[in-house]
Design brief:
The chain is mainly α. It has helices at residues 30-34, 37-89, 107-122; strands at residues 92-95, 129-134, 149-153.
Amino acid sequence: MSDVDVKTNKKRGAVGRPKKVVKSPKKNSRLDSVCSKEDVEHVVKSYADATRTVQKNVVEEAAVAQSSKRVVESVVRQLDTDKVEWEKRKVYVVILNTPEPKKASVPEDKKKEHLKYCNSTLGIPAKHIKVCRRAGKIDESKPEYCRPLIIKLRMKNW
């Protein structure tokens, strides 16, 4: 091995020149002539404007994200409500064009006739029927009109 350092091409152990010390610029140096006070103020103002715009965009994005979250929560809540309503309505059966009972005039007799009709014609036992009623009012001007019969079952699978 030689006494010469490969990187610097100097002898090992040799003392090099002292490093230059850079002094801070004086008040009337070239830096003052490069940029003026107005230039610095303009740069600071433009930076403030740029950061204000960025901050405004961040706030707007946060507001949009939060409102999107509210919309999603609202939609999920509505879907859950609709699902519950749909499950409730599964137990309802609506039968159209069923004749009105001619004999019965008292509401209790009408209910008995409706249950008898459901059992004999539709094959639904009375024990599975929770409510059996007609929709709407009787229209005396249209005697041929049949109101829908609404049946609410105790279970959806009877």
